[in-house]
Amino acid sequence: MKVLVTAGPTREYLDDVRYLSNASSGKMGYAVAAALAAAGHECVLVSGPVGLAPPPGCEVIPVETTAQMRAASEEAFADCDGVIAAAAVCDYRPAVRVAGKIKKDGAPVSVELIQTDDVLAALGERKADGRETPRWVIGFALEAANPRENALQKLRAKQCDRVVLNGPASIGGDRTAAELIGPRGEVVVHWEGTKPSVAGDLVDWIDAWVAAGRPA
Question: CA 167 to CA 144: how far, in whole Å?
């Protein structure tokens, strides 16, 4: 298969030197890309800014902003069989980006934020475009409160086939605990271990699921 993977954070600039972002390291997405390549799949990795070496055997498309990630992902998705969306996209951006650098003058500063593009929802909307068999979509959900309920809502709202649910403890670390959530909110499988080992388990599950005809 040819698979799109999104990884890492995105940045939304307040001015030319300051930005909003999050603590995503990109380790999970990069581990997934490496596992896909190791399993013999073709992988296109759309990556936000991270301090990681590109996984061998993957095409890497670097991006910075959420809009850039959406544009690159939609273009790559047209030629892929599925997507594993592990990126931690910045959900908000300043309504106005200031040219140059905002000067510190001791006065309070207010910033109006607006929502950014929804990369995963855009891919979910396009998964059947031009295809007899729709592309498959696996999302990631990092949830703290009501995690399974929120993960199921994300799955349905963004037209995912499955969602990988994990928690805040996985941010930036080398290990993770994750549940694969199905379309009825059921826990399909639970994984725990290093991010490369969980990524390998996820790719093995996808291979078996696709080989079985992608049962609901």
Answer: 6
CA 57 to chain centre: 20
Query: Which of 41, 56, 9 minimizes the C-alpha distance to 28?
Result: 9
Asked about 150 being catalytic, the answer comes back as: no
Residue 136, strand partner residues: 82
User: For 63-102, how does the pLDDT look when each residue is reduced to its tens digit (9 = 90+)?
Assistant: 999 999 999 999 999 999 999 999 999 999 999 999 999 9
> How far lies 32's CA from each of 15, 97, 99, in Å?
33, 34, 37
Amino acid identity, residue 2? Answer: K
Q: What is the pLDDT of residues 144-186, one digit of tens each?
A: 899 999 999 999 999 999 999 999 989 999 999 999 999 999 9
Phi-psi region of 8 (alpha: psi -120 to 50; beta: other; left: phi over 0): left
Q: Which one from 22, 146, 150, 166 is the annotated catalytic residue?
A: 22
